[in-house]
Structure of DUF2007 domain-containing protein:
Amino acid sequence: MPLSSQQQSWEKVHTAFNEAECHLITGILAGEGVKWRVKSSRVSQLPFAHHALGAIEIYVPKLDAPLAQRILMIYRNS
């Protein structure tokens, strides 16, 4: 499915599998001044999240994607 022109200007930098992880990652990005958006495929009727059933994709502006990737790499390695 092709992305709309608005979606093409954003790049996925992380997939979280629960809300806590999503809040942590978006908080790190926001703390560094990086704007973000999320796209959730979580099924709210299910009490658990399992990969595609609960994935939360985190997007940043395409121009900020290299910076966001570096920020997340530093976080993962610390």
Summary: The helical segments are 5-8, 19-31, 65-77. The chain has a mean pLDDT of 84.
